[in-house]
Specification:
mainly alpha, 124 residues, 77% helix
């Protein structure tokens, strides 16, 4: 029963992607929205992975600094990219990609020259 459910869900996802015509060349506004939403989910997963990597390199006080920075960044993203009832997915995706790039630069810096606590406080 579980195998049939998983197979059914997989076919549904493949069908949805096929109907969207592929995200390399979306044909309709619905395709654009579908692809942007799919990208948002992927970026959300990537930001969580990168955040955990950076947290693993920090001291306890630095972890607190980054955690507070991340919370404030989330609030800023939500204020900038949504209203009470709708999310501007393109805005959210741009903002998340920027944060991922920032976290990757922090990770590189921590590994090469050490973590700069001032940089961790940025909400970029």
């Amino acid at each position: 029963m579980i195998k049939e459910t998983i197979l059914g869900c997989s076919l549904l996802l493949v069908s949805a992607a096929a109907l969207a015509g592929g995200c390399d060349n979306p044909r309709t506004p619905y395709d654009v929205t579908y692809c942007a939403a799919l990208e948002m989910v992927q970026l959300d997963q990537e930001i969580n992975v990168e955040y955990k990597k950076v947290m693993g390199l920090l001291t306890s006080p630095q972890k607190q600094t980054l955690k507070q920075s991340q919370i404030q960044w989330l609030k800023n993203r939500d204020n900038e990219c949504s209203d009470d009832s709708m999310i501007n997915v393109a805005c959210s995706n741009r903002t998340m990609q920027s944060r991922i790039n920032f976290l990757k630069s922090v990770e590189r810096e921590c590994k090469s020259t050490g973590c700069d606590s001032n940089k961790l406080a940025q909400q970029q």
